[in-house]
Amino acid sequence: xxxxxxxxxxxxxxxxxxxxxxxxxxxxxxxxxxxxxxxxxxxxxxxxxxxxxxxxxxxxxxxxxxxxxxxxxxxxxxxxxxxxxxxxxxxxxxxxxxxxxxxxxxxxxxxxxxxxxxxxxxxxx
Length: 125
What we know:
The chain has strands at 3-7, 10-13, 18-25, 33-39, 46-51, 58-60, 68-73, 78-83, 92-99, 114-115, 119-124. The chain is mainly beta. It contains no helices and eleven strands.
């Protein structure tokens, strides 16, 4: 049974930082590209970033470029999202997702095979 478990969310002031983690189990982690998405109340799920199996390629949504960094540790079956210079508009539930295409990175939620339950990030002004 595949499980993706996010952690690290919380409440932070604007300008602050948070680091999210997503621990994967039940799959061969190094054979998956990993992505982060977010969804704010009343809004559609939004692509944040993705990373391929060996971290050689990354892809960022325009709204987070230069502020967020995705990384992964295949030995720990974990993907990370370092979020800096946070803004109130970053407030959302953040989800990690796994795509069995190891090389091609996609911003389309439908392309991902497995999803975590999400972790809340709230940025106060």
